[in-house]
Amino acid sequence: GAVVSQHPSWVICKSGTSVKIECRSLDFQATTMFWYRQFPKQSLMLMATSNEGSKATYEQGVEKDKFLINHASLTLSTLTVTSAHPEDSSFYICSASPTLAGVTGELFFGEGSRLTVL
Amino acid sequence: GENVEQHPSTLSVQEGDSAVIKCTYSDSASNYFPWYKQELGKRPQLIIDIRSNVGEKKDQRIAVTLNKTAKHFSLHITETQPEDSAVYFCAAPWAAGNKLTFGGGTRVLVKP
User: Do A49 and B99 touch (CB under 8 A)?
Assistant: First the structure.
């Protein structure tokens, strides 16, 4: 299957600092990638869709100025949590699919990044 | 958008018994229904999926059934083993492409 790699796998930061998480598709090109957030013992909640070469689209209730997304190439999307606070502590997971745009297919997930804000 | 409901939220079964998890969805245009397994602290991984042109799909001990009229689909695990213990998520797409909405998850515990 396709491989999606995410880095870092865990990060601890101080309140008020910014944290960048990278998501790479290793063996396919992805014009779109998806960023999910998962709180302990809860489901995956879609935060935003990252679009290569254009602005990300955010789900309702997700602050775009707080969660900056950049998709500069067909294999890399980054999520930056700006001015992080303890309530931003969560498991962030990216995903992508090698299928054609408009055709729904298997989503491959990165390893996830566990963010802890002190 | 899509609304996906999943039941039960927890399921405890004896090793060797069967486990069934059910999901309903709201968007009648949805045509792809995956099931993901997530072990503690790890990424979700696809275990089986079904498209709307079939009613059932089986892969060894795992099967998925789909009822498009009623807008529900189910995951069946037979002869459960301790390694089947995990959280299982159903999902359904909305909007164009691969945007998935996930169900709330089912925590399955297989007791030896």
Answer: yes
Q: Does B105 touch chain A (CB under 8 A)?
A: yes
**Averaged over A23-30, what is the pLDDT?**
92
Work out the percent of chain A whose per-residue pLDDT is above 70: 95
Residue for token pair 């880095």: A7
Q: Taking phi first (over 0 means left), then psi (-120 to 50 degrees means alpha), and beta for anything else, what does residue A69 get? A: beta
Q: CB neighbours of A76 closer than 8 A, spacing ≥ 6?
A: A22, A23, A24, A25
Three-class SS of residue A61? coil
Nearest residue of A to residue B92, measured between CA atoms: A104
Top residue of A104, A106, A108, A116 to mutate, by most chain B CBs within 10 Å, is A104
Confidence label for A98 from pLDDT (cuts 50, 70 and 90): confident
Q: Which residues of A touch B (CB under 8 A)?
A: 32, 34, 41-46, 49, 93, 97, 99, 101-107, 109-112, 114
Q: What residue type is A34 in one-letter code?
A: F
